[in-house]
Amino acid sequence: MQVIETLAQGLKRELKVVIPAKDMEARMNERLAEVKDRVRINGFRPGKVPVAHLKKVYGKSIMADLVNEIVRDKPTEILTERGEKSATQPEIAMTEDEAEANKILNAEADLEFTVAYEVIPKFELKDVSGIKVVREVVDIAEDEVNEQILRIAESARTYESKKGKAANGDRVTIDYLGKVDGVAFDGGKDEDAELVLGSNRFIPGFEEQLVDVKAGDEKTITVTFPADYPAANLAGKEATFDITVKDVAAAAALEINDELATKLGLESADKLKEIVRGQIESQYGSVTRQKVKRQILDQLDELYQFETPERLVDAEFENIWRQINTDLQQAGKTFADEETTEEEARAEYRKLAERRVRLGLVLSEIGEKAGVQVSDDEMQRSLFEQLRQFPGQEKQILDYFKNTPGAAASLRAPLFEEKVVDHLLSEISVTDKSVSKEELMADDEEAEGKPAAKKAPAKKKAAAKAEAAEGEEAAAPKKKAPAKKKAADESAE
């Protein structure tokens, strides 16, 4: 076998691999000898079939298998011998000429193919002991725990019918019929609908007009649907709602006690407080770690500057760019609205993609040198988390991870990266700093690793995602119309 390097430009490599026809024929003959005693051909006793006849019957098939095996396995062997690692799956190219391919299968022509790839750049790991980070820590007050418990307990709040006028915080039970230009619209009707005034569940102006109503009242109110309302046929339209008030009920007081804990499925108020405090600590802890990780990445970025594999950067950029355009579409904005152009945004996020790839390679090398491993149990837990997020689709997800090349790696990569961050935290200087929750949650674009150039579209979301920050940004809850969800969805269609 001959391996000839035909391209060595930057990180790009291209090799020409040639295996002589006589070597391919020798391998084929070995395979024929192996199957000689197993094949059954009419007119011949077992093990007595002439090799020439076997070659005539099975030669091409065996040769095709050999070619596939060589093309599949040889590139990896060759790169190992060269001491190189490919950044992505190497591209293999063979002759597309049918006559030439037929000659190869008949062992009448050499097997030739090219292997094109980009090497992972080699770099020396640098001392990280000089990296210093500040870990912001929030002391959780008892009042905050109690406030969170009361918000959770709203689902367990009871109401008692009352006489007199409805006030904010009261629950009204109503029948309603919505009309636009005097015509009832789909999804605009409901009976015995329960609405807590001041909850802002319905469109702006609806709940306010029900303050002071009494049981038995009939009233027509006028509201305007928001311009961005999901149902296009209602967006921005003025509508009337004919309302019949069937009941007004006052909210019972909420007290943090064992009775409330029991309603929420726990044995005591102390246990309820313990769990809620743990949830708040986890939420703040995620933000703290995210900010610490960004500090580490920023300082690693200053330590390492080397050429990055173009294909990896392309793939990372496409992920970021896809998110950018999704954010713009959801916001109904253009690049001009964000005071930039598509060209400027592309250049900015291309730099971000290069940074992300470079840091990924650095973290990978640090982890490999430190012996960081992701256990089967950790992979299993990660897979279970995926399954938990998509109830009812467990089989499809399992099939995806079982049958899709690289799917398992997508589970392993974030686990590995977080374990490398844990390793770095044991090697660098970490100073704890007590801060308020407002300071912890403050939006700091530079701390989030965002490009420092002109404002770019949807910068906050895309940069946070691109930097692989832990936790997801909270989505603002959307206001609902007084229509049932299903009906509103149908209207939107």
Automatic annotation (TrEMBL):
Amino acid composition bias (Basic residues), ranges on this chain: 452-463
GO MF assignments: peptidyl-prolyl cis-trans isomerase activity
Sequence segments annotated as region (Disordered): 432-493
SUPFAM superfamilies cross-referenced by the UniProt entry: FKBP-like, Triger factor/SurA peptide-binding domain-like, Trigger factor ribosome-binding domain
Domain of life: Bacteria
Cited PROSITE patterns: FKBP_PPIASE (PS50059)
Family of the protein in this entry: Belongs to the FKBP-type PPIase family. Tig subfamily.
Name of this protein: Trigger factor
Species name: Sinorhizobium chiapasense
The encoding gene: tig
